[in-house]
Amino acid sequence: MSAHLTSILKHGGIAVIPTDTLYGIVVRALDKKAVQRLYRIRRKTPKKPFIILISSREDLTAFGCRPNAAASRFLRRVWPGKVSVILPCTGKKFSYLHLGTKTLAFRLPQTRKLRALLKKTGPLVAPSANKEGRPPAKTTTEARKYFGGRVDLYVNGRTTRAPSTLVSLLSGTPQVIRSGAGRTSAIKKGHHRPFLRSM
After folding, report:
1. Is the pLDDT of residue 110 over 90?
2. What is the pLDDT of residue 189?
3. I need a labelling partner for 7 at 20 to 30 A (CA). Which of 124, 137, 171, 199 fits?
């Protein structure tokens, strides 16, 4: 993906890009003003955090997330891939992201171009490119109908027709919250030790 896209995101801009699943509308997760701008144009529900794309498991530490041994083994099985994982994130510093839920969902995508972008920009908040309650945009033309000039850049590319599989690690075992593009074989495979909320 282009240097122009990287520059826009680093300067607090919003872009619609092809992710490893659907088209996403993205901003830098550690840019509070950009995230708040995204919430204003994308969502009405006040207590529903967006998924965050990361370039490596090490990026979790930037959000105060430290998975225990059992959770780390699970993440190695499903990442990189089309599985988004909900983890505890209790810090007040990130309340603009977790919106009081004290949890965040992360995904480490398999797409090399996307991971290369994430290494340059840092983690990206990446909900699907649609208004809340409307169908996800399948093309940038559809995304423009939703957001128009409120998005700084639209990037064409290939996407899937399904969102990521969403899994919670907040209880004793992995719980599939939403079935999607990600394989569930690794989620259902074997016995899992309890995942601690202190991870």
Report:
1. yes
2. 56
3. 137
* Residue whose token pair is 């559809």: 142
Alpha helix ranges (H) inside the chain: 3-10, 32-42, 69-78, 95-98, 112-121, 140-147, 185-188
DSSP character string of 95-145: HHHHTTS-EEEEE----HHHHHHHHHH--EE--BSS-TTSPPPSSHHHHHH
Q: Which pairing describes strands 15-18 and 175-178: parallel, antiparallel, or unpaired? A: unpaired
Number of Cβ within a 10 Å radius of residue 130? 20
Residue 56 tokens read as 């490596």
- Kindly tell me if the per-residue pLDDT of 9 is higher than 50: yes
Q: Who's near 133: CB < 8 A, 6+ residues apart?
A: 44
Domains in the chain, ordered, with CATH? 3-188 (3.90.870.10)
Which are the contacts of 183, defined by CB distance < 8 A and separation ≥ 6? 78, 81, 82, 83, 165
Using the structure block, give the residue that is written with the tokens 């896209």: 5
